[in-house]
Amino acid sequence: MGPETKDATSPGDSMTATGDAAEGDAAIADASILVDSLPTRDAFDDRPAGNEDQDVGVSADAVANAGPDSLGDGFVDLPLAHDAVLTDAVLADSPPDALAKDAGNADASDAPPSCTPEDNPTFCTRLAKACGPFTAADNCGASRTVASCGTCTGNGQTCGGAGVANQCGVAPGTTLWARSMSTMFLLGVAESSTGVMVSGSLTAPADLGDPGKPVLVTPVGATDTVLAQFATNDSTYQFSGQFGASSPAGTGNVFGFLGALASGDAPMLSGVSYCSPGGTPVCNQVDVGAGLVTPGGGTGADGFVGRYALTTGKAEWVKRLYGPAESKIVAVANGPGSTLLAAGAYNGAVTLAGGSDAPVTFTSLGYRDILLAQFDSFTGALGTTVKTFGGTGDDAPSSVVWTGSGIVMAGSFNGTLTFGSTVLTSMDYDPWVAKLGADGTPIWAVRFGSATKEEGASAVVDAAGDVYATGTFAGSVAFGSFNLTSAGGLDVFVIKLRGSDGVVLWADSIGSTGDDGSSNIAINGSGQMLVAANVAGAIAGGGPGFGGQDSAFVAFNSDGTRRWTKVIGTSDTDYAWTVATGTGVFYAAANPGSDPGSTVDGVTIFGAPKAAGLLLRIQP
After folding, report:
1. What is the pTM of this model?
2. Alpha carbon distance 567, 543 (integer Å)
3. Helix (H) or strand (E) holding 25
4. What is the mean pLDDT, run by run of 10 residues, along the chain of 620 residues?
5. Closest CA to 254 of 215, 217, 227
């Protein structure tokens, strides 16, 4: 600060005003001499001379008001001009010894604030790291390595499992749970709004309950159809029902395939019953869910389709396709509005009947012909779309699906098969795929195959209307412009066809050196597919196999790239029966040929031991 000044008239002054003025004049003169003797700016840096007074804020008034050398350092006290500003540039231009002296005189409040390092949980949370080791700068800027930001405890979750570092996720293809069906052989699966529903065939008592909570189901016929539902999160038992009685008791066989869920989660089944009055044992009547009925006769099978009550197994309505020869309804799918599409095959003269509808009869052109029928899903009333397709040989469907504006069917045939103006000719038994209009009018149809007997195709449709199909082939076969060659015997093909015209967009194969077979295909809303196949040995990406025939499940993207391959099995003949989609998951139904043990694919099997049927919930 500047020198203290006193009022000349203040009491107790020992100096007169004149004396003070004289001493002030002398001080000004001394200060002027001192200022003139200060080093120039050039002594401290290389900035141009001539601006020193302006830079340090020294004014003429400051010189005039210079005080004595209060610090005793050989310099008089020079107050800054009232309009001077101590900028960063001014401080930077100060002599080093002056800066040092200022630093030495600073109090503790001028020091930069200290930083308290965060703890490891806060470090991980701030950087959104949920698991595993991680290295980064902490809140104070220091590098830190944390051995683990946490562990993953969710079902099937691992650190980085979904492909994101330090995040818990489930790796594609992970089996989330495995549920034993006891002695029941799985035939169908669909996810409802309250659980995952299955259908299966039962020839011996089964325990469908949870450990310590048995639920015994005993067949009333030779083979019953059972409907059951389990929780999606952990596969715990919810409820079940059955049908399949016969007269005499234990003589009929009923196989129901769960293919769709109608409104209210009502299970919609297609199926086949075997009851032969002239067979051994004699079977006079059989129950397909609506009470005992008389079979069509002969030694063949009769088809049926219906809407069922899950908790009782009783049919709310059922239609039968029957005659003296073989008739089957093999697939169903939800159609437009509240309708159900059903696909079947029949031989000779058959009748479609049930409910209040008048019976409808059909006669095949050759050995078996194809039937497409539409029903009201609430009442079972026969709709306007009823079509048959056939030729001189053996023709059969294996799947039907509604595209949103039309129908796609797939299967196999021998001889000739006619769809409208398109006539397909097989080399032996060949797969076929056809697209129809909403009323069943053919739009296009294609076949694939070689001189070897090959099995029929199963098909699904994506959101864009393109078709994906799977079946079997042998040797070298052209699928459009794509040539596939089997690894040995029969292999499984997987193809994509353009929905508008059936042109093949890509083709791939699954196969071992033995004879392999296809079962089914499912597709989710993301265009990811899961194919069920039965393989006779090791396949690409599936490990060495288990011996005998194994169950294989192979996932694809819509562009044909493989996502993952899973093979499960025993040393006996195992079956990959069907696959389905659920909310963010796939379901796979496998039927082991012998006791699979207590685990499958690294997961403990929940439910009864020695499972004859296994339901897997799998991450896509």
Report:
1. 0.81
2. 7
3. helix 17-37
4. 40 40 43 41 43 46 48 47 41 44 47 85 96 96 96 92 95 97 98 98 98 97 98 97 96 97 97 93 95 88 96 96 95 97 97 94 95 98 96 95 97 96 95 97 96 88 97 95 95 98 98 95 98 96 91 98 97 97 98 97 97 98
5. 227
